[in-house]
Amino acid sequence: MISLNDFLMVSIALFCIGLYMIITKRNAIQILIGIELMLNAAILNLVAFGKYDKILNGGDVFALFAIVLAAATTAVALAIILNVYKKYRTIDPDKINSLKD
Amino acid sequence: MSLVQVMFYVLAAVVVGSAFFVASTKNLVRSIFMFFITLLGLAGLYVLCLADFVAVTQIVIYVGGVLVLILFAFMLSGKENLELLQKQDNKFISLGKLPALLLAGLFFIVMVNVLGKADVDNLQWVQMTKNFMPFPKANDSTVENIGVNLMTFYLLPFESISILLMMALIGAAHLARKERGTI
Asked: Do B61 and A71 touch (CB under 8 A)?
């Protein structure tokens, strides 16, 4: 049988890859993908622990909530990225260094 | 090794490998499509955790919604985007990326240490569930139980998340609208 440790190991690896992407990438969309990877690592943790709570389903239900939150985050973040692109003609976060006025 | 273990290791290799590819490739479109593979592999891992409903939700929302949204944003933001990508140095390990690599690697080591110390498989409630509760079989459906719990025990989080989702969608539509006169 697979132990809980193995799932958490995969989730740690995903989280670190996401962290690396957020720090190094110079494109807002790729940074967003890094954030999604980290969120997915967290959801994997919830689901892995939820395996042992099949009566109240705490892990599963909150994994569902986290997925919905991630979808909402992505929608808002992409709208912001499109606006930033319209104003600056680039989505490199290093070059975006002034406010609206 | 049992079949479940083989499936777990194959899926874990697919997930981590494709995540590495997402992080290392220079081509944005390729990285988005490899992210698709990562999400599908994660859905497989959820099935191995006996959470079939979460796996289906993952496929429907992430693969069907979020990924298409990301592709849209990529296509709407034009080709300066691509030129910028070509300019950045493409090696996975280079001097400018060394601090990030160091941070991620050290964080990995710290977390693995924490995991070793936490000893999650011998937690009290996990052991109790393993030994005393009727463990669900692989072909049991969890959907009915999740539905009942969602409407009774988790009603308040459910309602608040629905309001939050509506706020986020209205906000996204407001942000993405075309302003007259400014552009």
From this structure: yes
